[in-house]
């Protein structure tokens, strides 16, 4: 886990080249707000297509199925305004809407080559509770097989560019931003493979493509203004990512130069994160309290305060902050997971009972959180339910692609849980999928 403002990273692959998945309630909400108009214009459901961030400084975005768009954190922090990030989303949404991935997915699922990849956190591409949850969709490796899977043809790129520009225009976003994204990436194809950003290997970049995109932008054109909502959530997403992925000393050095009206909400947010990473809890809390005073009903700032307090070993105070965040957003699984973690850290009989209830609720909304599963296993163990502790431990191992340990713990759960109970049936499902 990266100890920064509730952002956690999870291993995607069992290799030295594994990438990390960033889970954070505020970040996911920000990207959902930015993606919503684009996905609607593409005829895709914003509730079904999720934007997933990988902790990687390189510039890339890709799809591996029809329900997830993956974007590297480095690409997000390099975008100059929300319309550029929306251009990336529009292009990848076009690959989904135009059916470019479906044939390759069908071929991959019928082939044994998927076994050669690192496992992408399987719960993100499988339905909750599916017996296939331990298998996942192939990703994570940077070898030739992955590039074959991810790489689009020049024809597909042209189709996605044209459709993406149309989606942007229909959503009221200026398609010219797509030109600026390609200008940023210009020059990658002339570099050796080892020096290229992954985007150049998965999305062919050429002068002809850039010329065509300029034509699409001119055809669909317009001078649409960036909406205040898009700008706000883009600023928060980029500020949070840069504050926890960048050098905290450099962040604070840069922010010290801000004065007067330049001290914006996102500057205060970055200060809170940077001071927290420097273990300066007093100043971190000063800044997060300023954010809460300005926006008392913002759940993500209460969550951030809870994270700071919890990681500063002030569990009781952290519980209060997380509780407030959960009151504002009672069904947000990541906030509930943090709340449960704080209650577990408080470690009293009453807090353990409450932690069990909260973590079970988090599980019901999103069972695909390895750290939440670990905390829930501890709670079950501390409250005298070793069978359920083994079951959720098995599920956690399955999400990490460790099918051997998953099977071991699933057998323990099946032996300990009442035959025919919901937990016993879940253990049986896992055992069947392992065979």
TrEMBL record:
<dbReference type="GO" id="GO:0051603">
    <property type="term" value="P:proteolysis involved in protein catabolic process"/>
</dbReference>
<dbReference type="GO" id="GO:0004222">
    <property type="term" value="F:metalloendopeptidase activity"/>
</dbReference>
<dbReference type="InterPro" id="IPR001915">
    <property type="entry name" value="Peptidase_M48"/>
</dbReference>
<dbReference type="InterPro" id="IPR011990">
    <property type="entry name" value="TPR-like_helical_dom_sf"/>
</dbReference>
<feature type="region of interest" description="Disordered">
    <location>
        <begin position="413"/>
        <end position="435"/>
    </location>
</feature>
<dbReference type="GO" id="GO:0046872">
    <property type="term" value="F:metal ion binding"/>
</dbReference>
<keyword id="KW-0645">Protease</keyword>
<keyword id="KW-0482">Metalloprotease</keyword>
<keyword id="KW-0862">Zinc</keyword>
<keyword id="KW-0378">Hydrolase</keyword>
<keyword id="KW-0479">Metal-binding</keyword>
<protein>
    <submittedName>
        <fullName>M48 family metalloprotease</fullName>
    </submittedName>
</protein>
<dbReference type="Pfam" id="PF01435">
    <property type="entry name" value="Peptidase_M48"/>
</dbReference>
<comment type="similarity">
    <text>Belongs to the peptidase M48 family.</text>
</comment>
<dbReference type="InterPro" id="IPR051156">
    <property type="entry name" value="Mito/Outer_Membr_Metalloprot"/>
</dbReference>
<feature type="domain" description="Peptidase M48">
    <location>
        <begin position="25"/>
        <end position="215"/>
    </location>
</feature>
<dbReference type="GO" id="GO:0016020">
    <property type="term" value="C:membrane"/>
</dbReference>
